[in-house]
What does this fold into?
Amino acid sequence: MPKPSDGIGLTEAIAALRDDLLRARAEGAKSDIQLPVESMTVELTVTATRSIDGKAGFKVPVVEVELGGGGSRERANEQKVTVVFGGPVDRTGQPVKVADAGDELEG
It folds into this structure.
């Protein structure tokens, strides 16, 4: 497991997030109700880095958890992702009516 100071590159962090969103979309593709993403905000804690050879970049700290025989240590940095969904639609993209709070569901 990488040390917290190792982190992952900003490109890798965004690629992982994109891959997760694509996987979620694929898994829900056959669902009767779809939730289209209207916008997304990503807030990452990054560390500026510079190597001995002069290369500079940004790293996203990695969450590290280590468990031992007598105790544990956890080190984490906060990453915040906000996803705003549009109104629900069916598989063809047509809007789906959502019941009002006062409506009773038949079931």
Observations:
- The CA atoms of residues 20 and 94 lie 25 Å apart.
- Residues 10-27 form the longest helix (18 residues).
- The radius of gyration is 21 Å.
- Residues 1-5, 63-76 have pLDDT under 50 and may be disordered.
